[in-house]
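Reading a protein record of the kind used here takes little practice once its layout is understood. The reader may check this reading against the record printed directly beneath this paragraph.
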Amino acid sequence: MKTNRSSLGEEFIENAVFRIDESMRMVQKSLDFLKEEDVWKRPNESSNSIGNILVHLCGNITQYILAGLDGREDLRKRDAEFAIQGGLSKSELIDQINTLILNVKSILQNLSDEQLTKHYKVQGFDLSGVGIVLHVVEHFSYHTGQIAFWTKLLKNRDLGFYEGLDLNLKNENGC
């Protein structure tokens, strides 16, 4: 379905979806290295487990995209996301976030310019649609880094996010 969106809007959504997919790829790769019991380990009482982070991401993304941009009822219980100490398996957690991300990408790909510039009240903030998408992308990326860091601490290994790529290539002007 073609939306009523400018080329700038198209470019913005295309790049937002790319970044969401990158975070999802890194989360999946991190989880592939973990044993079931690793998912709910906490480094200390002031920190969250990878399981908590994944539950929190689902809550945040649901609140911002599904309830915010898509107008669904906001049923989030944020404090509960951090109180959970188990009960969901690694595969259940990844299935939940994968299903959510598929839904989110469908919503994003159908947003109009009007929806991207309209303002919404989400979690007490007044944000445009663009602001909501930026928040979700950066928030997902932030927690992806936490998941990767905690996985590296647990497993003492490089996670190979960029295997096969030469990240030392220099930029080319005019790309």
